[in-house]
Amino acid sequence: MNRKNTASLTTDWHIFIAGMLRLGDVAICVAMAFVSYRLWHETWTMPAYYQWAIALAALLILNFTHIAGLYRQEALGSASVQIVRIVTAWTAVFAILMALAYATDIPSWFSLDWAFLWYGMTLGGFVVVRVIAWLRRRRLRRQGRLKLRIALVGARELGRHVLRQLSASDQIEVVGVYDDIPSTDALIEGVPYRGPVANLVALSRREQLDEIVIAMIDRSPEEIETVLAKLREVPVNAKFCAHTLRFNLPVRGYSAVGGLPLLHVYERPMSGWGAIWKGTEDRILGLALLIPLLPIMGIIALLVKMDSPGPVLFRQKRYGFNNNEIEVFKFRSMRHDPNPDPNVPQARKNDARITRIGAFLRKSSLDELPQLFNVLAGTMSLVGPRPHAVAHNEHYANIIDGYLGRHRVKPGITGWAQVNGYRGETDTPEKMRMRVQFDLYYIDNWSISFDLKILALTAFVGFVHKNAY
């Protein structure tokens, strides 16, 4: 199986199925109320107080199913657990509605025949949806798409103990054991030893990986800090075996995998529904921006062609999500060089390579407009860390801690660093270090509202800047 898709698919599938069930529960509750009313009263015209009762039921079922744990991964794996819990939750909701009706002395306003028909049809809908979801989930598991793929860091005795516990679960696949201290064993508890943590970082770029479990409580704080520094650039959830509070770790929560208690150290940003909302935002707003800008882009293309010989578009390899190379589009703003310098010198003030129209395009950032096609193609986002040339990436990754952590998300046309003035030439490491700090802040604090704020600021302060030349 080709696993080059480096995003975590297993976790996303669980979140997606749980999210769809939440929406489905509310939809079934509301839809069956109207269908039952139509069947019993032979009309779709429903009094307002019926609709208020339906809205209350929808709110209650959403809360009761959550309290019952119906959307947790362990519950999703059992059809019987799902059915028992949904029957209990819906019966409790219906009982509350009936109790409220009698307590307020308004049962005469409602048709009890309709109410019990609604109860039965909704219950049937819940059960049917659960069975379908369980069958779909079983099919995905047989295809290996819902098995949690885990990499283990730590090859000593603690790592072996953790490995035995993880391997006991049929829902977990441990893809390898990694440790900077070499192991003499090719196999550890039946799982291949795959070298130092740097190999794990490289693996995360090639294969699907869901979790990184770190079993190193028997190591020094310095060893742990070294490993965490390497893993910070990987867009995969990293979790530490429990009982590590004596170390200064960035704990973000806790959970259990295969019965093993784990502390969350790094979490993959924009996962699950966050990734879906981010992708939807990019496609909708990207298309909304592209359509009115197409005439302007056509005029710019004509001016570029008339101004100097060479292609209209400049294509350059840059690093995208998870340090994978992507091809980024820009309007050509420099004189065409058939043999460009592989070191990619940054543009400087009064740079002789820049054409007349190119100077205006770079100053106004209009040369970036073709990157809307990158957004629609899914290789970039509207908002995110700006992508840098491959040569620049490799240079700064060696001198700035955490630099490659920028690639835990897709690069963007604009970003938090740009609207705060950190754009254009980075002629000193300090300027790039500040840009990286703003990029990492954006990744750790991402939200749709944060994106919209950056887009709004870009419209006012992001296009023109004294450092853009």
List keywords for this structure.
two-stranded antiparallel sheet, six-stranded mixed sheet, 469 residues, Rossmann fold, 3 domains, alpha/beta, flat, 12% strand, 51% helix, single chain
Quick structural overview:
The protein has 469 residues and is of the alpha/beta class.
Write a structural description.
Keywords: Exopolysaccharide synthesis, Membrane, Transferase, Transmembrane, Transmembrane helix. InterPro entries: Bact_transf, EPS_sugar_tfrase, NAD(P)-bd_dom_sf, Undecaprenyl-P_gluc_Ptfrase. GO terms for molecular function: undecaprenyl-phosphate glucose phosphotransferase activity. It is found in: Membrane. It is a single chain. The chain is of the alpha/beta class and 469 residues long. The chain folds into three domains: 134 residues, no CATH class; 119 residues, Rossmann fold (3-Layer(aba) Sandwich); 190 residues, no CATH class. 51% of the residues lie in helices and 12% in strands. The chain has 15 helices and twelve strands. The strands form four sheets. The protein has a six-stranded mixed sheet, sandwiched between helices. The protein has a two-stranded antiparallel sheet with strand order 3-4. A two-stranded antiparallel sheet has the order 9-10. β7 and β8 form a beta hairpin. α2 crosses α4, α4 packs antiparallel against α5 and α9 runs antiparallel to α11. The longest helix is centred in the middle third of the chain and has 35 residues. It is flat and about 85 Å long. The N terminus is likely disordered.
